[in-house]
Amino acid sequence: MDDLNNIKNKIKDMSKLALKMWQMTHRTFMEHNADLIPGILEDENNLNNMEKAIAADLVKLGKGNQDEHMREVVVLFAEVVEDFELIGDYCKDILERVQIKIEERLLFTEDAVKEYEALYNKTLEALDEIAFAFERGDLSLVKIVLRKEEHIDYMVDEYRKKHNERMIQGVCTPMACNMFLNMLDFTAAVYYHAKKIARNLLKIK
Asked: How many separate domains does the chain show?
């Protein structure tokens, strides 16, 4: 049990780092501040290392364990840390687009920024609730993430349609449009992984 509690504490740290990365990635976009990117990429590298270390701990805990419940817990936590690592990857993908946006001086319309903010905030709430559940030591608290579940697919489809209309009208350039649509898709992917984390954590008794 001590080994499992130690693993939970490490995943708690991972959840906090993923949340920080998400917030800092958004800050880089909003402030057009490329100087923040190296620090976020360092966090992404740390997140990768944490995933590898925790995965090794889980393998050690599960190997040869005859307790079926414990094996199930190990598998669920393994999926959780994989999802956190993938969230870091998507942050990196968004940062690459933001860096191009800054270097090419691409502009998003006010409507586009509002649409991106709407998706970002819904995802932020989910990641924040997950980190809070780990901090409180009560994984059942993540149920609020699923209660607040939004139909992100519909939002993304609507925002994509609106943005393509703006491009056709000449309000934004094709390159800026492509950057924006990529960021919408990556943000939706982070939200999906946050929901998956919440679902798996609720299975852990």
From this structure: 1
Find the CATH number of the domain harbouring 65: 1.20.58.220
Measured at the CA of 127, the angle between CA 123 and CA 131, to 5 degrees, comes to 170
pLDDT tens for 88-104 read 999 999 999 999 999 99
The answer to whether 63 touches 27, Cβ cutoff 8 Å, is no
Containing structural domain, residue 128: 2-202
